[in-house]
Amino acid sequence: MAYEKLELFIDGKWSQGTSGKSQDVINPATEEVLGTLPHASTADLDAALTAADKGFKIWRNTTPIARQIILDKAADLMEERKPSIAKNISREMGKPVGEASLEMDFVIGCLRWDAEQGKRAYGRLIPARIPGQRQMMIKEPVGPVAAFVAWNFPASNVMRKLGNALGAGCSIIMKADEETPSSAIAMARCFQDAGLPDGVLNLVFGVPSEISSYLLDSPIIKKLSFTGSTPVGMLLQAQAAKRMIRCTMELGGHAPVMIFNDADIAAAAQMCSATKFRNAGQVCISPTRFYVQEGVYDEFAERMAQHAKDIVVAEGITEGAQMGPLIGERRLGVMQDLVDDAVSHGAELLAGGERLGNKGFFYKPTVLKGVPEEAKIMNEEPFGPVAPVASFKDFDEVIERANKLEYGLASYAFTTDGAKANAIGDQINAGMFGVNHFGIATPETPFGGVNHSGYGTEGGEEGITAYQRVKFISEIGV
User: Fold this and answer.
1) In CATH, which of 3.40.50.300, 3.10.250.10, 3.40.309.10, 1.10.357.10 is domain 255-443?
2) CA pair distance 56, 166, nearest whole angstrom
3) What's the rounded Cα separation, in Å, for the pair 434 and 439?
4) 354 vs 256, 309, 338, CA distance in Å?
């Protein structure tokens, strides 16, 4: 199975860049080197900035229908190439091929949605106070975009930004993650083969802090979009503020799940397990704090533990694999520290709790019961396959505990009481809320958080709007 040729993409040309620097891309399941990724020099970044400036002038003046034709053709090419792209995602990120294939389905759906939505940049006429005056509001693309994304969903994180930006008429410089570069490169080839004008999309790699500082210091960049950790997002926001660059920040989360006595516990445990251990727990909207009402607490914890023990953990390209490795060795120590800390605070280990094997970065699906609020895992985003379960007595208590952190990305509840579900929706401090399911991320719906989980949304009509600006025109005598 061929791995993607790793290159930079600047102004319609593929190259190894001019820095002479590079890094290896590692398979986290086998620790083998998949390829060598070139880093961009400042000269390469200057070329990308110049190209994005030129590309924006072309793309903004391309009609929305003409843009849609190109983007739809790129989506067709991604559909054709999906099997190879998905396998390479699995090899460099670790997730099972089936999950990587579903990720590509989302990518293709997202691009098609944004291509179509780009035709709906509606303005409006505003009734005037003066006879003969015409007042108009129009929307236009904000300008060249700098985008930076995380490794956990290497294709969909990229496409959330590409689709929104290109659909709105912006050009973009994308810095995809250096640990998982192949899908971004493969998608860029699809855009090029579909006829995207040179300079509209530029793809670079390198030391993240160096690239972000350089790009955000340029007067060419008018918009920043970032998916990653809260601390890094705060740093990038501060850098962007120096030039009044508009930002969309999709940052960390620590999603509470509230499971009430009236819920279908068997179904809830099955869904919670499948979602918690998806992508080895390396999901920003993953359920990470399980609050279970006292009447069903023991049953839920036991069911979660059994589901965790039944999960088939293996390299993602292995037939029947249900969970792969963590992204890197560094994450193994983080998981063990969280588990050991919880146990030291009185938690009971029901499943897992240790590394699996000595080759690759596998960690057993883990369930902890009776985890107190002061344990690290209840306060720090775990981003791994560890599920802490705690009990609660009543509605007011669980809402207070669910809302206690500065994070506010995703939240979930399991209940058959409609009034209770509505009350949680009103009181929960989060950008997204799911009741009796976890399917809160689709191309046509807004995706984003509040507080330390960031601001702005991706997806839906709000996603396109984030890459547009408003212009007011008032005319008399014309």
Assistant:
1) 3.40.309.10
2) 10
3) 7
4) 24, 13, 11
List the catalytic residues: 250, 284
How does pLDDT run across 15-52, given as a tens digit for each residue? 999 999 999 999 999 999 999 999 999 999 999 999 99
Q: How many residues does the chain have?
A: 478
Per-residue model confidence (pLDDT) at position 1: 65
Burial of residue 228, with CB atoms counted within 10 A of its CB: 0-12 exposed, 13-18 middle, 19 or more buried = buried
Residues ≥6 apart with Cβ < 8 Å to 350:
301, 302, 304, 305, 308, 367, 368, 369
Region 146-167: what's the mean pLDDT? Answer: 97
Phi first, then psi: what are they for 286, rounded to 5°? Answer: -60, 140
3 state DSSP class of 293: strand
Q: Are 448 and 454 in contact (CB under 8 A)?
A: yes
pLDDT at res. 478: 87
Dist CA 138 CA 268 (whole Å):
47
